[in-house]
């Protein structure tokens, strides 16, 4: 049986402000007191995993050990089917050290030049780690296709280029609540909350 989070402070093992904000919104009904790894000054571990799950576990375990608190890490990315799943676990690296996702989206479009298949999916792995070494993991996905030029200024990363199946707006055009209802991160969070969190009704 999965271990449940029993309340109190929860470290979000990320230095990405957009990601921390989105995770905080998704966890709001659970009563967790969210604090980011960046706020605590925790170092970022080297992501040496070969999968999203492996990298999420590396980050969650490192933050839980350093902060001596439960820690939640997300590793997510965009897998483009015509590119054999790239950029995948290297999605953030395509943006370079400056996290320039406009440049990353241009690079992606250039890589797709002449490709009729523009299908892709976002994947999100979540790892919830405790200081004693226990870890719970889940993974969520959302399927869609890539559009060009990018549309919208909401979200972050590759959101302005990704349109989920059955939608006519990119993630960059959607309001946060609409995106949270269908995103890969929301899918993963629904799974994690079901096994590890209690929804607060007061």
Automatic annotation (TrEMBL):
Nucleotide-binding as UniProt keyword: yes
Pfam families for this protein: Ham1p_like
Cofactor(s) it depends on: Mg(2+)
Enzyme class: hydrolase
Keyword terms: Hydrolase, Magnesium, Metal-binding, Nucleotide metabolism, Nucleotide-binding
Gene3D superfamilies for the chain: 3.90.950.10
EC annotation from Swiss-Prot or TrEMBL: 3.6.1.66
Transmembrane parts of this sequence: none
Keyword Nucleotide-binding: yes
Catalytic activity entry: ITP + H2O = IMP + diphosphate + H(+); XTP + H2O = XMP + diphosphate + H(+); dITP + H2O = dIMP + diphosphate + H(+)
Binding site for Mg(2+): 46, 75
Catalytic site: 75 (proton acceptor)
Cofactor info, note text: Binds 1 Mg(2+) ion per subunit.
Binding site for substrate: 14-19, 76, 156-159, 179, 184-185
Single GO MF annotation: dITP diphosphatase activity
Subunit structure: Homodimer.
Job description of the protein: Pyrophosphatase that catalyzes the hydrolysis of nucleoside triphosphates to their monophosphate derivatives, with a high preference for the non-canonical purine nucleotides XTP (xanthosine triphosphate), dITP (deoxyinosine triphosphate) and ITP. Seems to function as a house-cleaning enzyme that removes non-canonical purine nucleotides from the nucleotide pool, thus preventing their incorporation into DNA/RNA and avoiding chromosomal lesions.
Family: Belongs to the HAM1 NTPase family.
Listed name of the protein: dITP/XTP pyrophosphatase
Annotated organism of origin: Brucella anthropi (Ochrobactrum anthropi)
Lineage, uppermost ranks: Bacteria, Pseudomonadati, Pseudomonadota, Alphaproteobacteria, Hyphomicrobiales
């Amino acid at each position: 049986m999965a271990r449940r989070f029993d309340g109190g402070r929860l470290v979000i093992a990320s230095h990405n402000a957009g990601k921390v904000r989105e995770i905080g919104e998704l966890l709001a009904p659970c009563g967790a007191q969210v604090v980011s790894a960046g706020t605590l000054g925790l170092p970022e571990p080297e992501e040496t995993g070969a999968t999203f799950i492996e990298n999420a576990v590396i980050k969650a375990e490192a933050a839980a050990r350093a902060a001596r608190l439960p820690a939640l890490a997300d590793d997510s990315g965009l897998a483009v089917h015509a590119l054999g799943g790239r950029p995948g676990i290297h999605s953030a690296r395509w943006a370079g050290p400056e996290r320039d996702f406009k440049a990353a989206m241009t690079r992606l479009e250039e890589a797709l030049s002449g490709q009729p298949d523009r299908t892709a999916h976002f994947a999100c792995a979540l790892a919830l780690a405790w200081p004693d070494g226990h870890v719970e993991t889940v993974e969520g996905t959302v399927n869609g296709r890539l559009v060009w030029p990018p549309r919208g200024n909401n979200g972050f990363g590759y959101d302005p280029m990704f349109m989920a199946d059955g939608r006519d707006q990119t993630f960059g055009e959607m309001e946060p609540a609409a995106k949270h209802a269908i995103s890969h991160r929301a899918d993963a969070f629904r799974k994690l909350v079901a096994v590890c969190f209690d929804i607060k009704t007061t």
